[in-house]
Specification:
mainly alpha
Amino acid sequence: MSADTLTIIVSAIGVVLTLGASLFAAGAWMIRRIDERLGTVDHRLSARIGSVEEKLGARIDTVEEKLGARIDTVEEKLGARIDTVEEKLGARIDAVAADVTDLKIAVARLEGPPRHLLVSGG
């Protein structure tokens, strides 16, 4: 092997190693930058999500309290209305029962006692 061929082979190996090492270093640098950016973005998003979660939690709690109060008032109003309707219906049912009893007595008086000694005309 001549010196020129050996020099070309060593130069080619040097160029390939240099290019491979520089590509590896560039890839490592890009990965490190991406990790730094993702870490910062992750930290910012976590903080933002935490604050939004706190705000929504507070809003949900206030809405829940308001709805609970409104439901309680509606229950009280409906309970009072149901009680009055129940009293009115109870009074009507008692009145109908009394009328039915009076009606039974009147029908019994109209029919009278059963007749005895009826002769059939035939």
